[in-house]
Write a structure and sequence with these properties.
Elements: H1 2-21, H2 23-52, H3 62-85, H4 94-121, E1 135-137, E2 143-145, H5 153-164, H6 175-178, H7 182-189, H8 194-197, E3 208-216, E4 219-226, E5 238-239, E6 244-248, E7 258-259, E8 261-267, E9 273-277, E10 285-286, E11 294-301, E12 308-313, E13 316-319, E14 323-325, H9 330-334, H10 344-348, E15 364-366, E16 375-376, E17 384-387, E18 390-398, E19 410-411, E20 413-414, E21 420-426, H11 438-443, E22 449-453, E23 458-460, E24 463-467, E25 472-476, E26 497-505, E27 508-515, E28 518-527
Parallel strand pairs: 3-14, 18-20
Antiparallel strand pairs: 1-2, 3-4, 4-11, 5-10, 6-7, 6-12, 8-9, 8-11, 12-13, 15-21, 16-19, 17-18, 18-25, 21-26, 22-23, 22-27, 24-25, 24-26, 27-28
């Protein structure tokens, strides 16, 4: 009740003030508020994470104070400038000042108080703001709306700037896509922490890193490694379901899908690891006290076909990498965070010839060559991209005809990002690495080719080279990997060839390839730097 009266009272007071100052002054002030809010929301994260968070006590207050101070400072400068530039008021009838000045002043009040509520919600404190919790966990542990304000100024403000970020005030990293539903984060998801707000509400992005991401039918699992600095006040990391959210990729006016974790896996003090559910308000993901680093696996209910873009933990937004498509995530969750769907022991005990994928036979090779394709910067289709005269991403069909291409324009290789190498496997029918016939029957419909190294890490195919009678198709998806339905089916006539393309970390050793649940073959291929 208190926060409702305070919010309504402040908005009414601001509306009354500017109605009495005159319609023209009210409009000028509203424009200043809009610009000041946009500038504050454009720079608050940069200021907080880049300048204010230094590993000290102020880290817990940096996000909220950077937003409020920036807004106040920019608004002050704009008001000072407009007062100098437009010293006199525009005379309008008194009835117009009151009739139109009130709504204009009320709009300024909504945005001002909305930013105030959002800023206060990002500051370290207890879970509630004057006894109010907008969004958080229920007793069953699920995340949703707990209460609503009579006048939800924080939601109106967040939605207004969210729309403006893809409209008149659009940027390369719009609020709508990079920090959707900011009002929910501030009131009060990030403050819905351990022991009613005693947990830390903010974390620097450098204190955590995404290790792997697995996309399965209806679920997504993200493995995050936390460093020592992520621990709450230097003691032990605690995370509620409200403080972790997965944000999907979106474009234009689309609203990104946001999901909260339903299960997690963590180490336990007695040794090993265990799966827990976020099905009670008392359940928190934690780390073993005293550990320098810790890995946590978060499982989200996820709509098939969506590509996750960020994971946001205690307001720190982390890019997702090493995305792997899997037919099921149960083995990942049950494997204590291991990246391999099959363990190295599975390959060691496989009843297959050791030379099943012998590099000497050409079944698997450490090569970035496009052969037999040879194209140029001028000749390549616009549907596929190139960088430094190397193909990077896209889909295109190339002619089998050989033409002379100058060396300065010639494109003959796939692009290899620093620290990685391209590995290619011949999966054509009849070859040792074939994924058709019996292997395809064992693998299942959702299978994707995957290499496994000696440490248990997996590498999903990022593309292929498909030699057909009418041309040669190259498909590359290095960011999200190759989906199961994108793997070409070769006819039994044997007149087509297919090579799978993988991007593998240097200094690893590939020990075999699997296709879904089926082991294709074993090998020993050191991935050395070029």
């Amino acid at each position: 009740m208190i926060v409702n009266f305070v919010v309504v009272g402040l908005v009414a007071l601001i509306a009354y003030w500017w109605a009495n100052q005159g319609l023209f002054s009210a409009i000028i002030h509203l424009l200043c508020v809009i610009v000041a809010g946009a500038v504050a929301l454009a720079f608050w994260e940069m200021l907080a994470f880049g300048l204010l968070m230094r590993g000290g006590f102020f880290d817990y207050y940096a996000l909220g104070t950077s937003l409020l101070i920036t807004f106040s400072l920019v608004l002050f400068i704009l008001r000072l400038a407009t007062n100098k530039l437009v010293p006199a008021n525009l005379q309008v009838p008194k009835w117009a000042n009151l009739a139109f000045g009130y709504p204009v002043g009320a709009a300024s009040g909504v945005l001002t108080v909305g930013l105030l509520v959002i800023g206060l919600g990002l500051i370290q404190s207890q879970r509630t703001i004057l006894g109010f919790v907008g969004h958080g966990r229920t007793q069953a542990g699920s995340v949703g709306t707990v209460n609503s304000l009579w006048l939800p100024v924080h939601r109106f403000t967040s939605e207004f700037y969210s729309q403006m970020s893809i409209g008149a005030l659009s940027t390369s990293s719009p609020l709508r896509h990079y920090n959707p539903y900011l009002y929910q984060q501030a009131v009060s998801l990030c403050r819905d922490s351990y022991k009613n707000g005693k947990g830390q509400v903010a974390m620097r992005p450098s204190q955590a890193s995404v290790q792997s991401v697995w996309i399965c039918p209806n679920t997504c699992v993200v493995q995050v490694r936390f460093s020592r600095g992520a621990r709450d006040f230097g003691n032990q990391l605690t995370l509620s379901a409200s403080q972790v959210r997965l944000i999907a990729e979106s474009h234009g006016t689309d609203r990104p899908t946001v999901a909260f974790p339903t299960r997690w896996r963590q180490e336990i003090p007695d040794g090993g690891s265990k799966i827990f559910r976020f099905d009670d308000i008392s359940h928190y993901a934690t780390t073993v006290p005293g550990r320098e680093t810790a890995d946590l696996l978060f499982e989200f209910q996820w709509r098939e076909g969506l590509l996750p873009r960020f994971i946001q933990i205690k307001n720190a937004r982390l890019d997702l990498k090493n995305i792997v498509r899997m037919p099921s995530c149960e083995r990942v969750m049950a494997g204590a965070g291991t990246a391999a769907a099959m363990t190295t022991a599975d390959f060691a005990g496989a009843r297959r010839l050791p030379t099943g994928l012998d590099p000497r036979s050409g079944g698997i090779s450490l090569s970035s060559s496009l052969a037999p394709v040879s194209t140029s910067s001028n000749m390549k289709p616009g549907s596929i991209k190139a960088r430094d005269k190397r193909l990077t991403e896209g889909v295109a069909v190339f002619s089998r005809e050989r033409t002379h291409i100058g060396r300065t324009l010639r494109i003959e290789h796939f692009y290899e990002p620093p620290g990685t190498r391209i590995v290619q496997v011949d999966v054509t029918r009849g070859r040792p690495g074939s994924i058709f016939g019996r292997i395809a029957d064992e693998a299942g419909d959702d299978a994707v080719p995957m290499l496994v190294d000696s440490d248990g890490h997996t590498y999903t195919a990022i593309g292929y080279v498909h030699e057909m009678t009418e041309g040669i198709e190259i498909r590359l998806h290095p960011r999200q990997g190759l989906a199961a339905d994108q793997v070409p089916h070769l006819p039994t006539s044997g007149n087509q060839k297919l090579r799978m393309v993988f991007l593998v970390t240097v200094n690893s050793t590939i020990i075999g390839m699997q296709y879904g649940d089926a082991i294709v073959g074993r090998c020993t291929l050191p991935v050395v730097e070029r």
